[in-house]
Amino acid sequence: MHDHSLPPLLVFIMNNRNWNILCWNIRGLNDSSKWDAVRNKIEESSCSIICLQETKKESFDSAFIRKFAPRRFDNFVYAPSVGASVGILVLWNSSHCSGQVMDIQLFAVFLNFTSVHNGDSWNLVSVYGPCQEPARSSFVEWLRNLVINDEDNWIILGDFNFYRSLENCNKQGGNVQDTLVFNDLIGYLGLIELQLKGRAYTWSNMQNDPLLEQLDWFFTSVNWTVDYPNTLVLPLAKITSDHIPCKVMIGTRVPKSNLFRFENFWPNHPGFLEAVQR
To answer: Global pTM?
Structure first.
């Protein structure tokens, strides 16, 4: 039973499973002060896949992953940093989906995911776009060479370090040529932008009179809009990084289970007893 006075999309979300992705340029994962913040955002987003950019870390192992990610995230792949810059990490929960690595570049990690609930298969590309040449042109060329067939489902997300319009910056300036290159790439691939709800910018230089820009983007293939029309990108509160974390909520037609599962780590979470009492 549901309340027929609720909006149709809300009713759909309440009655069906969502596949949630947390996407965030974290600006470094070596700082222990960030680990609790990352873990809290993972829990807040209820995600089954985590895409982190600019990790500034050359390698990862399971022991380090446990410092900030719950144990249910039992698979991961990464593109190493170059010294103390760049780096991409993707983690996922194998009880929700299986992942197959398709390609790893310094500026992108490309995986194919298959849902354990209904067998749906789709491609994910987590990107961190270089700011400097020649890596910037290599990044654009690599994306341009992706083969996105009409019947395939793709989602491409992350920090592109491009903007589509000079209006994606709150101050005058910017490179018009860059916007032309980026929009040409989007058009060539036939990508559809997922609009970020309630935010005009995703990055700040954190000054008193801040420079604000939208550098983080979310795109899908055309077929995705048919198979997963109820896909939303929601901003989360910005902490510990100059980029905002974003939650991609993918509405599916898979019914929600009526089972309630208690996670063993919950009692160790700050505020657990207060939340239960409330």
So the answer is: 0.85
